[in-house]
Automatic annotation (TrEMBL), chain A:
Highest rank taxon of the organism: Bacteria
Cell location: Cell membrane
Transmembrane segments: 29-49, 61-80, 87-104, 116-135, 147-165, 185-207, 239-258, 318-334
Pfam family, one: BPD_transp_2
Organism the protein comes from: Mesorhizobium liriopis
Keywords linked to the UniProt accession: Cell membrane, Membrane, Transmembrane, Transmembrane helix
Membrane topology: Multi-pass membrane protein
Protein name, per record: ABC transporter permease
From TrEMBL, chain B:
Top-level division of the source organism's lineage: Bacteria
Keyword Transport: yes
Residue ranges of domain ABC transporter in the record: 3-238, 250-496
Keyword flag Cell membrane: no
Keywords: ATP-binding, Nucleotide-binding, Repeat, Sugar transport, Transport
Similarity field: Belongs to the ABC transporter superfamily.
Protein's name in the database: Sugar ABC transporter ATP-binding protein
PANTHER family, per database record: CARBOHYDRATE TRANSPORT ATP-BINDING PROTEIN MG119-RELATED, GALACTOFURANOSE TRANSPORTER ATP-BINDING PROTEIN YTFR
Gene Ontology MF terms: ATP binding
Length: 341, 506
């Protein structure tokens, strides 16, 4: 710490216990709980003004709509925590979504057993998605390409690949055992919501409790220091992009299952932006070194709720995008102010 | 007086950091400002330059009452600041950096020719000949620092504030800097000089202002205050630290060699370095900036690839490809630049401390929190780390406490060899002594230490023997009884004629 940089601290380099004035305290509070506050007020607004808002259907509808974003945003949170970004998630969704029906529809090779076909349709696309993630990580760590550029490669090419698989045709199907992941219920809860919950819990646990989680934050916070402490920074990054790819793959298959059809041109479009927005609104610094997993979930919920609120009250979807943008700006502004306290 | 700050008070949310502090600088005077971290020097400077606002008190500069609300105002009034951490643009050229935000213009366009010419002219005043069209990042840290200073003095300043300007300069460059300060002085420009290195104060400063606990404790002509008095008034107590070593004990040839490096080569910076560290001793590594000290340490640690030579640990030849390989053999490296290569600022003291031991704390991929907490508590206590809790972000700690956490990061792995690169840089005198004492105790307990330092007194006080590097080669190994400032400087200047002439004029 430079002499000029030394925080106004107590004397002799003792513990820095800073008390904040009212304005700073407010900023810090908003930086920490602002998203929660917005979420709560949106809920309250809807409960009061939106007809039929308090209903099981509304809840499950919103949760099913937000599930895929949350799943992808979990991967994005980890990627951003390492100081990177993954623009390819939407395209990876398209690849996984295009592959799955091709497999159980026997379009690639005839598979004798129906069960085996569905099983392969549920796993091989994830392998492909993992491969995509590995490719991103490979470009980033081996050739030191900036993540935003490296993942742009698959952002562009990935959708093309998916369309090549399907000859740019809409693949419709009727395969209940596969569609279970998008349309099924377990104890009245939609399967994709359960998937979402599992992914969130796993990610939260990963960040908070595991050595890998610590290493992710260290790599994102100071890569040189991490390497000198014996952390395989490149390996950590490659693994994180693989995880992001796999999660995108899961989301892609869920979307296809919901639609009874895979349209490689549309599956996962703009998903990268939704996921990044959820991360930003959720309070994770885009510069890396931090991962606010539950914040991201909340961020995704807020963005979803904004859309619902506006739609339910007769505001067109297009206008919702503007509100979404405003929220992102507000969140990032708050963070940068709270950061400087 | 050119500058007269009187009865300055400042508190942050009720915590008083400046109490009736004062500071005076006469025209053409070189004033030293010293004090421990937290004494209030930085706040004082920030108030002067408009980065903070004072609560009360008066500031008179150049005959008028001033109260700058932003650094730009201070700059316009003739106060230039050269920061320790350079606020320059690494990708832009040298000339562009010198004129950043004050670019000479012609018809609204950049006047590149004039910019280049003036940049070269200014640098010539510093005896620096650089290709001003090359990006700043192509140059060494020291050169970048000189460019920052050049930038500062081209602002037609009446007062130049230098905060730890010498921390990344070698002896020769320090000499050049001092010449610059003297040139400024001859031109009637004053300098406010903040440094932790006492010998520099005596070499270049006219007077010294000492701060402690937010107060101005004293103001003396340099010629009338001894080092001991200076340190004593800065600390408010006697400093007994440097004397704690037991050098006289016969240490050396009977101890087994832990690390043996022979004829190391890497690029242009390391061209034949041999050294050895025995078990339980502190081996010093001396040399001017650019002599290849840090590079040698990184080679041994596996952080950079080596082109040639061999490294043996306990007689076993090694070929580390990554730091993690060296760590497995019980080697740790506390790097020179805490901020860039040491701390992970967003993480807590706890998380920073256990970064290197993480693989051993892992049970099925999950961190064993109980053991982690026990280790952290033990080392916070053992090293006297001052933090409000282990969960406090490390960036909030003072430099000395950050350094203790980084030492603990390695000590908790129970290493065999600890390489410390400038372990006391940018740390106040009290913490400095504590860290040196700690290293000595650890060595007495059997830890091998390879200590890189630019401070000759430090090497003489702590090292059992010193390997001197010059121009990428090891040129001498001096045993404890051969160590003297004279001798070290002579060896450091070996094959490096310019090295000796600009040495500190102390």
């Amino acid at each position: 710490m430079s002499a000029l940089d030394t925080a106004p601290s107590s004397t002799n380099g003792g513990p820095v216990e800073r008390r904040l004035n009212a304005r700073q305290a407010t900023l810090r509070f908003l930086g920490r709980y602002g998203t929660l506050l917005v979420f709560a007020s949106l809920l309250l607004f809807n409960v009061v003004f939106t007809p039929n808002f308090v209903a099981w259907n509304t809840l499950t509808l919103n949760l099913t709509q937000v599930a895929t974003v949350v799943i992808v945003a979990m991967g994005m949170t980890l990627v951003i925590a390492t100081g990177g970004i993954d623009l390819s998630v939407g395209s990876v969704m398209a690849i996984a979504g295009a592959l799955a029906p091709l497999i159980f529809l026997d379009r690639i090779v005839p598979i004798p057993s129906h069960t085996l076909g569905v099983a392969l349709a549920l796993t091989l696309p994830l392998l492909a998605a993992a491969l995509c993630g590995w490719f991103n990580g490979f470009l980033i760590t081996r050739y030191r390409i900036q993540p935003i550029v490296a993942t742009l490669v698959l952002f562009i090419a990935g959708r093309g690949i998916a369309q090549t698989f399907t000859n740019s045709e809409l693949q419709t199907f009727n395969e209940p055992s596969f569609q279970f992941i998008g349309k099924g219920f377990v104890w009245g809860v939609p399967v994709q919501v359960i998937l979402m919950a599992l992914v969130v819990l796993a990610t939260h646990y990963l960040v908070r409790r595991t050595a890998l989680g610590r290493q992710i934050l260290a790599v994102g916070g100071n890569e040189k220091a991490a390497r000198l402490s014996g952390i395989d920074a490149a390996g950590v990054k490659r693994l994180i992009y693989v995880i992001s790819g796999v999660l995108a793959g899961i989301a892609g298959m869920v979307v296809v299952a919901i639609n009874n059809a895979s349209d490689a041109a549309r599956v996962g479009t703009l998903m990268e932006l939704d996921a990044i927005a959820a991360v930003a609104v959720g309070g994770t610094l885009l510069s890396g070194g931090r991962a606010n997993v539950l914040g991201t979930v909340l961020g995704a919920f807020v963005l979803q709720l904004v859309r619902t609120t506006l739609l339910a009250n007769g505001v067109p979807d297009a206008a919702a995008l503007v509100v979404k943008a405003a929220l992102i700006i507000a969140a990032v502004w708050l963070q940068s102010r709270a950061e400087r306290i | 007086m050119l500058l007269s700050m009187k009865d300055i008070n400042k508190s942050f949310s009720g915590v008083s950091v400046l109490r009736d502090a004062s500071l005076e600088v006469a025209p053409g005077e070189v004033m030293a400002l010293i004090g421990q971290n937290g004494a209030g020097k930085s706040t004082m400077i920030k108030i002067l330059t408009g980065a903070y606002r004072k609560d009360s008190g008066s500031i008179q500069f150049d005959g008028t009452q001033v109260d700058f609300s932003a650094p730009a105002g201070a700059q316009a009034a003739g106060i230039a600041t050269v920061y320790q951490e350079l606020n320059l643009a690494p990708h832009r050229t040298v000339a562009e950096n010198i004129f950043l935000s004050r670019e000479p213009r012609r018809w609204g366009l950049l006047d590149r020719r004039r910019m280049r010419a003036e940049a070269s002219r200014v640098l010539a005043r510093f005896k620096l000949e650089l290709d001003v069209d090359r990006p700043l990042e192509d140059f060494s840290a020291a050169t970048r620092q000189m460019v920052a200073i050049a930038r500062g003095v081209t602002q037609n300043a009446r007062l130049v504030i230098m905060d730890e300007p010498t921390s990344s300069l070698d002896e020769r460059e320090v000499g050049v800097l001092f010449d610059t300060i003297r040139t400024l002085k001859a031109d009637g420009v004053s300098t406010l000089f903040v440094s932790h290195r006492l010998s520099e104060l005596y070499a270049v400063c006219d007077r010294v202002t000492i701060m402690r606990d937010g107060r101005t404790i004293g103001q003396h002509p340099m010629s009338e205050i001894s080092r001991v008095e200076l340190v004593r008034s800065m600390l408010g107590r006697e400093l007994t630290a440097f004397a704690t070593r037991a050098k006289d004990e016969a240490r050396g040839s009977d101890l087994p060699v832990f690390l043996h490096a022979e004829d190391l080569h890497a690029g242009t910076r390391v061209r034949g370095v041999s050294l050895q560290v025995r078990r339980g001793e502190i081996a010093g590594l001396a040399g001017l900036l650019g002599a290849g000290r840090t590079e040698t340490a990184r080679l041994i640690f596996g952080a950079d690839p080596r082109d040639g030579g061999r490294v043996a640990v306990e007689g076993r030849e090694t070929s580390y490809r990554e730091p993690v390989d060296a760590i497995r053999d019980g080697i740790g490296l506390v790097s020179e630049d805490r901020k860039v290569e040491g701390i992970v600022p967003e993480l807590s003291v706890r998380e920073n401390m256990t970064l290197a031991i993480l693989p051993k704390l892992r049970v099925g991929g999950v961190v064993d929190r109980t053991r982690e907490r026990a280790i952290v508590d033990r080392f916070i206590k053992a090293l006297g780390v001052k933090c409000s809790s282990p969960e406090q972000p490390i960036r909030e700690l003072s430099g000395g406490n950050q350094q203790k956490v980084l030492l603990a990061r390695w000590l908790c792995t129970d290493p065999n060899l600890l390489i410390v690169d400038e372990p006391t840089r940018g740390i106040d005198v009290g913490a400095k002594a504590e860290i040196l004492k700690l290293l000595r105790e650890l060595a007495d307990d059997g830890l091998s230490v390879l200590m890189i330092s630019s401070e000759l007194e430090e090497l003489m006080a702590a090292a059992d023997h010193v390997t001197v590097l010059s121009d990428g080669q090891s040129v001498a190994v001096l045993a404890a009884d051969e160590l003297s400032e004279e001798r070290l400087m002579t060896e450091m200047a070996h094959q490096n004629e310019i090295g000796s002439e600009g040495a500190r004029a102390a």
